[in-house]
């Protein structure tokens, strides 16, 4: 096993009715239940595609702009298209290798709605507030 693989964790992940082994570079987590409520609105095929993109985020060093875009203030969006529908999920990187997923939505306009960005920034602020409180 090479040095890079020794530093990576082998996990068994189960989602969308299938299992696989992957070498994890990042740990994915959620905050506030926003992401869970969003995925309840997706079809099985949309959920499968989202799972694929999240698994890339979890395992790949670099991601193409097709899937990730920096928004501002440490906020990023995960980008997904399926059957002419466009979806976005906001997230942050925390402590280097942890990805925290926030709110998601179906995008219906060319530009990401500022209200959705502001909501994600407020969730980010609450996340760091809760994190700071739990570290006391």
From TrEMBL:
InterPro entries: HigB-like. This is Toxin HigB. It comes from Bacteroides cellulosilyticus. The gene is higB_1.
């Amino acid at each position: 096993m090479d040095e890079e693989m020794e530093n990576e964790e082998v996990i068994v992940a189960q989602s969308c009715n299938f299992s696989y082994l992957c070498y994890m570079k990042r740990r994915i987590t959620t905050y506030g239940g926003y992401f869970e409520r969003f995925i309840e609105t997706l079809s099985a095929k949309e959920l499968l595609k989202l799972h694929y993109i999240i698994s890339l985020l979890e395992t790949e060093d670099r991601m193409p702009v097709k899937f990730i875009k920096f928004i501002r203030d440490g906020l990023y969006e995960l980008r997904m298209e399926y059957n002419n529908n466009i979806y976005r999920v906001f997230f942050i990187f925390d402590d280097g290798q942890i990805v925290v997923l926030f709110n998601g939505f179906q995008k219906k306009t060319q530009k990401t709605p500022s209200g959705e960005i502001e909501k994600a920034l407020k969730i980010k602020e609450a996340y760091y507030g809760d994190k700071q409180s739990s570290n006391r």
